[in-house]
Amino acid sequence: MMMKLYNTATHHKDEFTPQNAQNVTMYCCGPTVYNFAHIGNLRTYIFEDLLSRTIRLHYPLTHVMNVTDVGHLVSDADDGEDKMELGAAREGKTAWEIAKFYEEKFWQDYDALHCTRPTIISRATAHIPEMIALVKTLEEKGYTYRTSDGIYYDTSKFDHYDALVGHARIRGLQGGARVEMSDEKRNPTDFALWKFSPKDKKRQMEWDSPWGIGFPGWHIECSAMAMKYLGHTLDIHCGGIDHVTIHHTNEIAQSEAATGQKYVNYWVHGEFLILRSGKMSKSGGTFVTVDVLKEKGYEPLAYRYLCLSAHYRTQLEFSYESMDGATKSLKNLRALSCQIKREASGAKETAASSEWKKKFTAAMEDDLNAPKALAITWEVVRNNQLSASEKLDFLQFADTILALDLFSEPAPETAVVLPAEIQALVDERAQARAAKDWKKSDELRQAIAQAGYQVKDTPKGQEVTKK
Ligand code: AMP
Ligand code: ZN
Hints:
The protein has helices at about 40-55, 85-90, 95-110, 130-140, 165-175, 220-230, 245-260, 290-295, 300-310, 320-345, 350-365, 370-380, 390-400, 420-435, 440-450; strands at about 5, 10-15, 25-30, 60-65, 120-125, 145, 150-155, 190-195, 215, 235-240, 265-270, 275, 315-320, 455-460, 460-465. By secondary structure, it is an alpha/beta fold. The protein has 3 domains: about 5-270, 3-Layer(aba) Sandwich (Rossmann fold); about 275-400, Isoleucyl-tRNA Synthetase, Domain 1, CATH 1.10.730; about 420-465. The strands form 5 sheets. The protein has a 5-stranded parallel beta sheet with strand order 5-4-3-10-11. Strands 6-7-8-9 form a 4-stranded antiparallel beta sheet. It starts with a strand and ends with a strand. Adenosine monophosphate binds next to helix 1 and strand 10. Zinc ion binds near residues 29, 222 and 247.
């Protein structure tokens, strides 16, 4: 079966035909490394990983991801500060230290969620000459103008500026609701290609350019790096849905104006992870990271399971109840898979197991229907007609896409890593018991229970499990 992908540019599930079947090209917008990635960001990387694993069933893939370590401003209006410099001021480190620290942390989380590393990782700060060259081309072709704070792209010069978003939404932007218009901008949708360093302040990250010392705009980074590694026309470009209106619209405008060629054949966007209370935000204490999940005793792969259980184009509402559900399902699926492996004397491919593998693949190839692929996996493990060896054949294949460590034997319950505050209560309870203070010991048991944990007193001491 031919793979189908929903293409934001055509508003349609299109059949996927690569330009070169020997090398599919895919660019994914990467992290801005000024803070920890939250699990919403990571939902997007999980969907991109599913796409990369599914493509690799049929084609070799070159997957490029940028790391934005400079130039992502806090405001879409091209004023406001660079997130990296802001991070440096916040933590009393240099912008370079901030970038290094949060990038390393990002890859740890990325790996923990079993996302396949990109073929090429490109840091913005290592590609300044390519960005300058692209801005120069745009300047030569008459798409740019200079203001007191930088070199800007004149969006009115590019005919199809609204191609990805639709005219109505661009008009909405022009109404000024989202982007405040600076006095010197010709059109509200114009954006900075190169920003000048402030005259009164030395920036930590700045470079010389034909227009003066400064730093690149955020959008130009992706165009320059994507085209350097993948050519003028990419097969696939991915990102979160928030990037459609501004970042990707601007990437198209810059790249197509510079090359005169189509920039991307398939635009694939993932929907957001949301909280019941709305957006995940750092200020509201609702900034959930992989470390926060681990502190609460969850395994990162349970979060991957949760993401797989919703289609990437639907919003997913995060809650700890849904994490509990995903944890339980993953545990059960692993227990059954391990049992199947023990029963089988090796995997055996038969007509029946191939049929199930085809069903699974067809689900993934139908615009990455991971919830269906998961449901098929459950059907197989519960199927009475398949032998253990046939099931094992299917599961080994399915786990190359699901990447849930299906054959890892469940860790003993006692191995649960307790959050620091629970561990403190358990330690206090141990002291109370040693002092034969049974009243206090019971009170502490209740406090631990209220926090969602269960204590069992065994000859070896207290055994604590999640309820
Ligand atoms: P950033 O580091 O802010 O550039 O974001 C990295 C990736 O995460 C981008 O592809 C964003 O579109 C995506 N993203 C941001 N917030 C969310 C969210 N709540 N849910 C899913 N993806 C998100
Ligand atoms: Zn990008």
